[in-house]
Amino acid sequence: MDLETNDAGDGQIVVPATPAGPAVPDLAPATTDRIAASVAAARAAGTRRTYASAWRAFTTWCANEGHTAVPAHPVTVAAYLVACADTVTEAGERAYAPATLAHRLAAIAHHHRTAGHPSPTGDDLVKATMSGIRRGYAATGDRPRAPRAPLLTADIVAIVDRARADCQGWADEVVERRDTALLLLGFAGAFRRSELVALTCSDVSLHRLDGLHIRLRKSKTDQEGRGAIRALPFTHSHTSCPPCAWLRWAQVVAAHDAGGRPGVIRLLRGAEPFAAHVCRGTRPRATSGAPLLRAIRRNGNLSDTALSGAAVHQAIRRRAELAGYDPELVTQFGGHSLRAGFVTQAFRNGASAHAIMRQTGHTTPAMLEVYAREHAPLIGNAVTNLGL
């Protein structure tokens, strides 16, 4: 850069002005709206919601403490982190895990960049504060985290068998078929609950050799929708066969879409007892693009809307409770128990990390090691070779 002196001749250095960038073009309102929509879609809806919640928490704290939220000083952010770390529940436990604090930092950084300000979260003070909080949590053993207990193969089979045995009429069987499909597809496919509820009828097809081919249009680690196919094979036992579970539920969905509640009643009252494989039978014709796993009203009517993630969580707990599981253990189950169960059972059965990742979609083995340490700590552990 060439430096100049001012015209007054006093030797004062003048830095030339930075050349102006291109002028903002005039765009039609429809075009600007499309750009805004595309920018918003760059992040998943769930991420946008959690960022908004985290940002509200930060701005509320700033307002109460008299700090400026935008642009925030690094000292303000450090003070906020300390305040969050010191927050405890009524039981005297830490209210926020380090992962939660890291997520809140990400939200603060995002909103600063969006507003055209440098992010205060990259400051050394903020980084050191976060590091100190993590060390403090670790030193005291305060790392509030409630991982879901895995449902293993024996659990899934026991819960499904009990669900079928408890059916007292056609309305019960509607719910049983839905919940059995949810459990077996979710477990064998290692699905996240968000992936399960996003499935449509046209995402599932029956392959004559492999079993089910389920097209996953996008996932948590594939937000741009490259897609993947998860195969769920035929099994020896018809009671735990994912293709059978899918077909029995798909029959209900197709009957409802074609004939409503009377159509479902006719189907179930005329159905043969489920005593053998049905997955080689006639494939039902369901409405393309319609949600596969749906809410069910108390009278047995199917909703036209997809099951929610919270409903998946509740269904798993309800079925475990009805199967006679200890109430304390039931509280540890949830939507993630199916995916965690797949990884844990696969490790216990000797599957390699690569083979597990083929189904789960994990991009690195690091996350799988978390499941192994927590739920299968003796697998590949030299302690079993000590000869004690």
Write a short abstract of this structure.
The protein is mainly alpha-helical and 388 residues long.
Explain the overall architecture.
By secondary structure, the protein is mostly helical. It has 14 helices and seven strands. It has helices spanning 29-40, 45-65, 74-86, 98-114, 124-140, 153-165, 170-188, 193-197, 242-269, 309-322, 327-330, 337-348, 353-360, 366-375; strands at residues 4-5, 13-14, 204-207, 211-216, 228-232, 294-296, 302-306. Helix 2 (45-65) crosses helix 4 and helix 12 (337-348) crosses helix 14 (366-375). It is globular and about 70 Å long.
Main beta-sheet annotation: 3 strands, antiparallel
Radius of gyration (CA) equals 27 Å
Helix fraction, binned, reads 40-55%
Task: Give the H and E element order.
Answer: EEHHHHHHHHEEEHEEHHHHH
Strand content: 5-15%
Query: Roughly what is the average pLDDT, rounded to an integer?
Result: 86
**What is the oligomer described by this structure?**
single chain
Class of secondary structure makeup = mainly alpha
Question: How large is the count of helical segments?
Answer: 14
| Distance, first to last CA | 75 Å
Shape: globular
The strand order across the widest sheet is 3-4-5
Number of strands: 7
User: Which stretches are poorly predicted, pLDDT < 50 over at least 5 residues?
Assistant: 1-18
Per-chain topology:
Blueprint: E1 4-5, E2 13-14, H1 29-40, H2 45-65, H3 74-86, H4 98-114, H5 124-140, H6 153-165, H7 170-188, H8 193-197, E3 204-207, E4 211-216, E5 228-232, H9 242-269, E6 294-296, E7 302-306, H10 309-322, H11 327-330, H12 337-348, H13 353-360, H14 366-375
Antiparallel strand pairs: 1-2, 3-4, 4-5, 6-7
Helix pairs in contact: 2-4, 3-5, 6-7, 7-9, 7-12, 12-14
